[in-house]
Design brief:
about 160 residues, mainly beta, ten-stranded antiparallel sheet, 10 strands
Length: about 160
Amino acid sequence: CIRDRPKGTGADSSMQYAISYTGVEGLTVDYAQGDNETVGAKAEATTFKASYAYSSFTLSYSKNEYDTEAATGGQDIDSWNLAYTVNDDLSVAYGVETHDTEAQTVDEEAEYVNVSYTTGGVTLSASNYMYEGDSNTAGAGGEIDRWALSATFAF
């Protein structure tokens, strides 16, 4: 998929493309890149993600980079996730994500655990999110621990 945006759409020049590979059973690999250029500003975004499912396990990784000519505009995000389907009703997942922002001395790091149980048309989920460096703040001020509980119903 290649897309080029002409003048008059918010950017002097813009071009994006993406490719995807699914030639091995259980494996998906995606890559995308885009450029925007306006008067006095240029930005480039690149995304790579891969996931591999084997039996009851799925391992995923992604890397996103956003670079600009501005000294504080760049950002890199790395994340990975491991999910395990215990049975048709129960699944668990664990993941980690790091945000590295230019001109910031503290990276934002997130870690989470999720458990989901489905029966009939009801899904119950519990998630724990642990953050360090939230809002690029060092020490205890940047540490957050949150729980989320949810119930969804399908009719």
